[in-house]
Amino acid sequence: MPATTMNQSPRQNPPAPTIRRATTADAAAIAALVDTHVAEGALLPVTAARVAEQDADFIVATDDDDRVVGCAHLREYSPSLAEVRSLAVDADYAKSGLDGALLTAIEQLATARDYPTLFTVTNDVDFFKARGYAPCPVPELHPEREEVGRFAGVLGRELGED
Question: Which residue range(s) make up the domain with 44?
Fold first, then answer.
């Protein structure tokens, strides 16, 4: 559910990653990348099996060796509402802008699927606010209140508003 970005020191001049739709073969790498952010409380865990079941809803960034160095998940909440989840970037790419590129790719996927509204549950409020997201109520989150309550904010954005 929650999205985050990393603030660790990046590797000097990493190669530009390729952003693409995930495949089932990416599932274990996505789960492992997300897991690196779970201990710090930035993301909720996800299993490789769950990722494999939902691979069409994930975007990945890969390096020159096809290693997953970033990911993001688009989760439908209703026909008009989707969530940005599991936005994670490898430490080597932390300050490269990859997080923003992954968010843009998820927004494009949401637009292609005709979701007019995106939201995220995050501790990185400033990252999302800088990209047009604002605090918003999401009544559909009520059943997940305990998980949501440990994060700094729920932010949303109407797509097509630039």
Answer: 2-158
How many Cβ atoms sit within 10 Å of the Cβ of residue 116? 15
Q: What is the mean pLDDT of each run of 10 residues along the chain (162 residues)?
A: 46 78 98 92 92 97 95 94 95 92 97 95 91 85 55 84 59
Kindly tell me the sign of the dihedral angle through the C-alpha atoms of 10, 13, 15, 18: positive
The model's pTM = 0.85
Distance between CA atoms of residues 27 and 11, nearest Å? 24
Using alpha carbons, list the distances in angstroms from residue 35 to 38, 71, 98, 108, 136: 5, 12, 18, 25, 27
Domain containing 111 — which CATH number? 3.40.630.30
